[in-house]
Amino acid sequence: MDFSDETMKKIRLGAWALVALALLGMAWVQFLSPRLEQSITDTLGRGDYELVATDGTVFTEESLKGGPTAIFFGFTHCPEVCPTTLGDIATWQYELTGSDTETAFRAYFITVDPERDTVEVLDDYVSWAPGVVGLTGSREEIDKAIKAFAIYARRVPGNEENYNMDHTASVLLFDADGKLFEPIGYGEGVDRAVAKIQRLLTS
């Protein structure tokens, strides 16, 4: 099929226009991405939630400030992820301090199942992990915290008494100013996780 010079000119102009749009889109993403990351860093964990801690204190967004902090969500009936994460935190603390009792950072376990996880239940659950404090509250306050930290949590349909929960499994690291520093993924190797925490401690 033969095209006239005018048609070919229009095709070339259209192609260049598409290239220009693609380049503009890439530039916009590059411009916007760091701003989105900064927005997430500055706002994650912010909210009007008020949780009850197993050490007798009250936990709010202000509690994130003051020192390096690890936050993770779970529930005491969790079959695998939560006990594994508690064990990971105990390992990280030991790798950083060389002690089974000393701690290098604060750690908070926020329940996504407040109906079953009372302060007493949580206290017993986290007591063996160095430096880990359990947090619970009313369903309303827990939902506020879930929203503030932008995590996923959902009750799996099942028996009314013996149900399961799906939830985000990452550990969120916050700096002394209460800003998100970096997440540690579930199952991430000890060396990588400890390296992240070391960067947090020296930041």
From TrEMBL:
Keywords: Copper, Disulfide bond, Metal-binding. The keyword Transcription regulation does not apply. Disulfide bonds join 78-82. SUPFAM superfamilies: Thioredoxin-like (SSF52833). It comes from the Bacteria. InterPro entries: SCO1/SenC, Thioredoxin-like_sf. Cu cation binds at residues 78, 82, 167. Belongs to the SCO1/2 family. This is Protein SCO1/2. It comes from Cognatiyoonia koreensis.
